[in-house]
Every structure is written in structure tokens, then in C-alpha cells.
Amino acid sequence: MDDQNQNSEQALKAETQAPDFTLPSGPDEKVSLSDYRGQPVILAFYPADWSPVCGDQMAFYNEVRPEFERFNAVLLGLSVDGVWCHRAYREQRNLHFPLLSDFEPKGEVARKYGVYRDGEGVTERALFVIDGEGRIAWSYVSPMEVNPGADGILNALESLSGKEVANVDESNRRESQTQSASR
Amino acid sequence: MSTRATGARARLSLPVGKRDHILGPEDAPVTLVEYGDYECPYCGAAHSILKEVQRVMGDSVRFVFRHFPLTQIHPHAEAAAEAAESAGAQDRFWEMHDVLYQNQQMLDARHLVTFAEQLRLDTDRFARDLLDHVHHDRVREDFTSGVRSGVNGTPAFFINGWRYDGSWEFSPLLKALESASVDAAASP
């Protein structure tokens, strides 16, 4: 992107060890990054719950989950919103993946990843793909108003797995195999 | 692996080919690909604009539609996409495509079958296709190709293989297509 976000330089880059963290994923549940050692993790920091529906990044990732699952990847959304806000948002949007609250101390995890916006008190719209050993394989900071889509994430997952998705037919075949295997 | 970062101007990952639903001549200087969802109100608004654009540009534009049903927010979008494919299997894709966009509030199974009757399709075959999800993989294939091309919502457009991020209101879209047509003529 030509208009590179000025804050993106602070974001942790590929080949860096991903800082571990433990954050609430609900009123009584917590999630640690290290829980997912051995499989790829997608961290999707976003500024706030309740952005308008049709351009909504989390609702979009909810649709794309089967593509992530093909790589056995876990998707975690993170923002500074509290657990009850996240719960209402997840229920209303029918989201099927955890939303973590970087709420207290506010933005602590986002700061560790270099994607906290001090003036505004929210996180950047930032993506990290972390490999099974806990190293960052790819990161990207999107302009705040742009939903970055999922192609960058899928390219990163693909190169991690060493899989070449040669064409759509091939990937579809794999998907149906995965589905039948999991039944 | 491509070095292109997310957010760069995206390329269509799956080229237009025989598998696609295509309106307009193969040698048209401009190809417009839409990724759309039959239950998405913005796609519905774009549908009538696209009709007008095709009328004005005639044979100089080729239009391709691919499915991108947002099934989590649009409960009828997947069935509607499969209905269009089922009509396509009876060579009536575009007729069904138009009917679906003209009736976006009525995309439940009963109405889909009614549309098939109105189009004089073999309704037994049509209903069986929907029940057995015969065209599910095809719809999914479109969706996957869209995700890989950087589609992040609907409608999404690609002009001659490049993602178009501008407005799809009539005048700006027409201007973009005409400009692509001039560019195509300059570099054959």
C-alpha cells in the first residue's frame, strides 16, 4: 500500500517471537496464546465492536473461517472492548470464534505487539499470523477504515504449511476430504 | 509466494474462463467481474446500475458474475446462489439471476421454486438440485476464488483482472470501464 500507515512501523514484524498473553474471552473464560502451540494462530486486532455491518471485518472473517480451518489455524479477534460488549456483539453477529478483551490494563497486549493508538485509546486494525512455535510469520497494519480482507492471511498460512493451493478444484477437493475426515 | 501485501491493488486470482457465467462477447475490450450475494441490498442496488452500464456500453463490455454469499448474515444467500446455478444447469442462469435480484425479500425455498416455475424450468430437477445441494461446491469455488482475490465484502468488482475500489454508482463506474477500454486499445 502506498499510503503506508505511519503507525505500522512499530508493529512487530515477521521472525519475531510473539509475546505470550492471557486475556478473557468471556465473563468466565480466559485464553492464552500458548494454548495453541503447534498450530497457526491468526490475531486480528480491530478498533471496536459494532462498526457498520456490511464493511465489518469480523463478520467477514466469520464467513471465511472454513478457509482458515483448512490450514488448522485458530482465529482470535482482539479489541479493547470489555467482555460483556464482546458477548453482545458476538451474539448479534453470530460470530463463531473468540473475541478477546484487551481491557485491563487497557491495550496492554496491543502495546506489546506495537499496535496501540495512544491518542484514541483503541488498537490498530492489525493482523498477525503466528506459527506453531509461537513466532510471527507475517504481520500487516491496515488503514483504520479499510477491511483488509483475508488474502494476506491465507498467503501467509499457505507459505507456513508449504502447501501450494494450485487451483480452486484442488483446494475444494481438499476441503471435502477434510470435512469427511472430521465426521 | 507473492510479496504483495494485503491492501495492495488486488488481482483476480481465478481468470475468467469456461466455468463462468458470461454476458457479452469474448473479444470485448473490457471484462467486468462481480462477486455478489443475492440477499445483499447493495448488490441489489448495483444490479440495476449494471444493467444500465451494459445497455450503454453494448458489445464493448463483457460481464461475469461469481457468487459470494455471506451466509452468516444472509440466511437465504446460499440457497439463492445454488438456485441460480440450478437454473444455469438448464441454461437459464441470467434469467434466474435477474429474478433473484428483483425479489430480494423473497428468497425462501417456496419462492425459489415459484421462480423456477415462472421461468418454465424443470421444477422437479430444480427442487432436487436445491435439496441435494448439487451446486454447493460450485458456489464455494466462486467464494474461495473471491477470498483469494482480496474480496472483503459485496459487491466487489474487478475490471480487466484488477480490483476496482472506486464508486459503483453509474457515472463513476461507466467512466472507469470506458477508461479501461481505452487502455486495452492502447496496449493490445
If you average the pLDDT of chain A, what whole number results? 86
Distance between the termini of chain B: 28 Å
Spans of chain A of at least 5 consecutive residues whose pLDDT stays below 50 are 164-183
Radius of gyration of chain A: 16 Å
Describe this structure in words.
The complex is a heterodimer of chains A (183) and B (188). Chain A has 183 residues and is an alpha/beta fold. Chain A contains five helices and nine strands. In chain A, the strands form three sheets. Chain A has a five-stranded mixed beta sheet. By secondary structure, chain B is an alpha+beta fold. Helices cover 48% and strands 13% of the residues of chain B. Chain B has a five-stranded mixed beta sheet. The longest helix of chain B has 17 residues. Chain B starts with 20 loop residues before the first strand and ends with a helix. The relative contact order of chain B is 0.20. The N terminus of chain B is likely disordered. At the A-B interface, helix 1, helix 4 and helix 5 of A face helix 6 of B.
Looking at this protein, list some descriptive labels.
heterodimer, A: 183 residues, alpha/beta, 5-stranded mixed β-sheet, two-stranded antiparallel sheet, 5 helices, 9 strands, 22% strand, disordered C terminus, B: 188 residues, alpha+beta, 7 helices
Give me a quick take on this structure.
Chain A is of the alpha/beta class and 183 residues long. Chain A is built from five helices and nine strands, in the order βββαβαβαββββαα. Chain B has a five-stranded mixed β-sheet with strand order 1-3-2-4-5.
Topology record:
The complex is a heterodimer of chains A (183) and B (188).
Chain A: E1 22-26, E2 29-32, E3 41-45, H1 57-69, E4 74-79, H2 83-93, E5 99-101, H3 108-112, E6 116-117, E7 122-123, E8 125-130, E9 136-142, H4 151-161, H5 168-182
Parallel strand pairs in A: 3-4, 4-5
Antiparallel strand pairs in A: 1-2, 3-8, 6-7, 8-9
Chain B: E1 21-23, E2 30-36, H1 41-57, E3 61-67, H2 77-89, H3 93-102, H4 109-118, H5 123-132, H6 136-148, E4 156-159, E5 162-164, H7 170-186
Parallel strand pairs in B: 2-3
Antiparallel strand pairs in B: 1-3, 2-4, 4-5
Helix pairs in contact in B: 1-7, 2-3, 2-5
